[in-house]
């Protein structure tokens, strides 16, 4: 087996700790992204070793395909109905466990899945932990119809919130316009610092054409931050017990 980079070793440590929370019979949501890949591998290994009986829903086609390759049966979220636990990655995590997600464009399905779960546990490497959200671009999923007018609405919202002249890029991948699993587009907002994530989230939710933004506020119950040496730090919201 090839040796992991320090960042990947940290992601794998967090993934191992998260998968240790899984119990036989659970209904699980499986997140998306490079850290979630480690989590899905660790989960598959536990299922093989212990014969865990789980019901799993995936937050993206990519995770669904990976899980399938590793022998994890995936069901539609609506077939399961409600989940005990969702394990997912994040792009930024603040001290209140508010998150930015959507670096891979999966935040719509991820948010629906996390909102349908009793608990959301995030797995990450230490670089994801920040004091204030916003250094990572904020992904906003928008409908292709009217994307330019939606952009104007978002710009007006940002201006009204004192965030003027912030770049807002239509996401591309491999030289083409990126499409989400739902066929929508992503606008990536470079905001530097989001002083009031709740107000920004409310403002974005009120814009026709915005399908979902990458702010996950008050949704994460526990963050497991791995280190390259294999140790893991648990972060909890002040009002939530682990
Ligand atoms: O859309 C992608 C998801 O929100 C990911 O969970 C997030 O971008 C973190 O991904 P990674 O673990 O690759 O940093």
UniProtKB/TrEMBL annotation:
Functional pathway: Carbohydrate degradation; pentose phosphate pathway; D-ribose 5-phosphate from D-ribulose 5-phosphate (non-oxidative stage): step 1/1
Residues binding substrate: 32-35, 88-91, 101-104, 128
UniProt entry tagged with the keyword Disulfide bond: no
Active site per UniProt: 110 (proton acceptor)
Pfam families, A to Z: Rib_5-P_isom_A (PF06026)
Enzyme category, top tier: isomerase
InterPro entries in the cross-refs: NagB/RpiA_transferase-like, Ribose5P_isomerase_typA_subgr, Ribose5P_isomerase_type_A
Keyword list, A-Z: Isomerase
Highest taxon in the source lineage: Bacteria
CDD domains listed in its UniProt record: RPI_A
Residue spans crossing the bilayer: none
GO CC, any one term: cytosol
GO molecular function, one term: ribose-5-phosphate isomerase activity
Gene3D superfamilies: 3.30.70.260, 3.40.50.1360
EC number: 5.3.1.6
Reaction(s) catalysed by this chain's protein: aldehydo-D-ribose 5-phosphate = D-ribulose 5-phosphate
Assembly description: Homodimer.
Function: Catalyzes the reversible conversion of ribose-5-phosphate to ribulose 5-phosphate.
Protein family membership: Belongs to the ribose 5-phosphate isomerase family.
Name of the featured protein: Ribose-5-phosphate isomerase A
Protein's gene: rpiA
